Structures are given as C-alpha cells and as structure tokens.
Amino acid sequence: QVQLVESGGGLVQPGGSLTLSCAASGFTLDDQAIGWFRQAPGKEREAVSCISGGAESTYYEHSVQGRFVISTDKAKNTVYLVMNRLKPEDSAVYYCATDRAIYYCDHDYEPIIEDFTSWGQGTQVTVSS
Questions:
Q1: Distance CA 96, CA 94 (A)
Q2: C-beta of residue 49 within 8 angstroms of C-beta of residue 68
Q3: pLDDT under 50: residue ranges of the chain
C-alpha cells in the first residue's frame, strides 16, 4: 500500500529556511516520480516541484527556482524539499504526491495535479515575522 508522510513544516521568518521531508512506503523512488504541491487559504493547489523516478530530472515552479531544491535519499526512500530565502507568499500547506503511472518530471512543464493519485496529509509552512 502506497503511503506518503510529510514532515518538517513550521513557522519561519522571512528569509529563513526549512526542509520538508516526504517519507514514502509501498514503492521505491526509483520507480515513481514525487511531486511537491502547496495550497494557501482561498487559493487553488499548485505544483511547486517534482523529481523523476531515479532522480533523473526535476521541475521547479518559476517563483521557487533558485530558492528551493528537491532531492532523493534512496536509502531512506525519502524526498526532501529544501526551501531557502522563504517569503510570506510561500506560506501554505505543502503536500507530496505520487502515482504509479508517473515516472518522469519534465523540467519545462508543470506537473498535472490531477494525475497524482496518492497524497500525504500535508505539512503547514508559515512564513511570518
């Protein structure tokens, strides 16, 4: 059974950093992509980043490019999202998600949220002074 568990959210001041973790079970990260998505109050859920199975390629939403880094620890079957130079507009609930049919994340194309069928419970990130 596929399971994703996020952790690492919290309250941070503008300009600070957080590292989110997505612990996966029921499959291996060599076989499926993992996407990070976020949803702020009153807004639609949006794709933030994605890493292909085997970490072959990555995608970053334009506003986080150069600030966020996605990576995989195969030994722990965990995906990380390191978030630097955080801004108040980064505040949201962050989710990781996957689907057995998704292996590749294209650098230039936003992942389609509806394609991801297995989701974690989310972790809250609040950027505020």
A1: 7
A2: yes
A3: none
56 vs 33: CA distance, rounded Å: 10
- In the chain, count of helices (H) and strands (E)? 0, 11
Q: Which two tokens stand for residue 43?
A: 């807004």
- Return the residue matching tokens 């150069």: 66
How far apart (Å, rounded) are the C-alpha atoms in residues 125 and 123?
Answer: 7
Phi then psi for residue 113, to 5 deg, are: -55, -40
Cβ contacts of residue 56 below 8 Å, gap of 6+? 104
Show the tokens assigned to 82. 């390191």
105-120 pLDDT tens trace: 999 999 999 999 999 9
